[in-house]
Design brief:
The chain has an eight-stranded antiparallel beta barrel with strand order 1-4-5-6-7-8-9-12. It has a two-stranded antiparallel sheet with strand order 10-11. The longest helix is centred in the first third of the chain and has 21 residues, at about 15-35. With about 230 residues, the protein is mainly beta. The relative contact order is 0.21. It has one helix at about 15-35; strands spanning about 50-60, 60-65, 70-75, 75-85, 90-110, 110-130, 135-150, 160-175, 180-190, 195-200, 205-210, 210-225. About 10% of the residues lie in helices and about 60% in strands. It has one helix and twelve strands; from the N terminus they run H-E-E-E-E-E-E-E-E-E-E-E-E. It has a single domain, classed as Beta Barrel (Porin), CATH 2.40.160.20.
Length: about 230
């Protein structure tokens, strides 16, 4: 199979080494944060809105090409994005999520052959349940929305599929309006039988035979609350 030319785009991807260094720095702060952060007093007013940029690492994502039976997969790669939470009750919030990964599509035929790079974006809305509203705050989150495939190869069209996500994590306050956020998420993108993905005109690279495309993500970031 002839390898397709990779279009590099205008925004350079963060190196894996830089991603690891950022995650290690945030983790080091998190180790001492519970001992140095002032505890929120019981009954004090809760913040109503928070925003959290994050950086992470996402893996998973494989297709079966229905015509040839070839295995196609998305390379594990760093991810980044933004989460916004709006308080509804003391323990619940509405969540808005955007998460982006720049990855490379590869085919096993029978050796692994790189095809081209693609952005995979998740645009989700959902709900968050907080197991605690004071001090360290574990949480569970469930979302629904869309997965956007944006191939970085001339002639191929963007494609959008329905998806959902579940996850959990912890928020560690460093002050009343600022803290650290760690989380893990699983995303499922719905692919009906004989779904066509990554098309150029009437010709599609992938005729997927399956029901779900799974990806998994670990994130770390900071949040600002208002």
């Amino acid at each position: 199979m002839k390898c397709c030319r990779i279009f590099l785009g205008v925004a350079p991807a963060l190196s894996i080494g830089l991603t690891i260094r950022v995650l290690m720095a945030i983790a080091a702060i998190a180790m001492v944060a519970p001992f140095s952060a002032p505890a929120q007093q019981a009954g004090s007013p809760l913040t109503q809105f928070s925003i959290a940029p994050f950086i992470g690492y996402r893996g998973g994502g494989s297709f079966t090409e229905a015509t040839t039976g070839a295995n196609l997969k998305l390379d594990p790669a760093q991810s980044y994005g933004l989460v916004a939470d709006i308080r509804v009750t003391r323990e619940t919030e509405v969540e808005l999520l955007w998460s982006r990964q720049r990855t490379q599509l590869k085919a096993d035929v029978p050796v692994t052959v790189p095809l081209f790079q693609s952005y995979v974006d998740y645009y989700h809305i959902g709900g968050t349940f907080l197991f605690a509203t004071e001090g360290v705050q574990p949480f569970f989150v469930a979302t629904i929305g869309a997965t956007r495939f944006s191939p970085q190869q001339a002639g191929f069209e963007n494609d959008t599929k329905f998806s959902f996500g579940v996850g959990g994590g912890v928020r560690i306050p460093l002050a009343r309006n600022f803290g650290l956020r760690f989380e893990g998420r699983a995303y499922g993108t719905v692919l009906s039988n004989d779904s066509s993905v990554l098309c150029s005109g009437s010709t599609c690279l992938i005729h997927a035979d399956g029901t779900l495309l799974w990806q998994y993500e670990a994130n770390a970031g900071v949040y600002l609350a208002f």
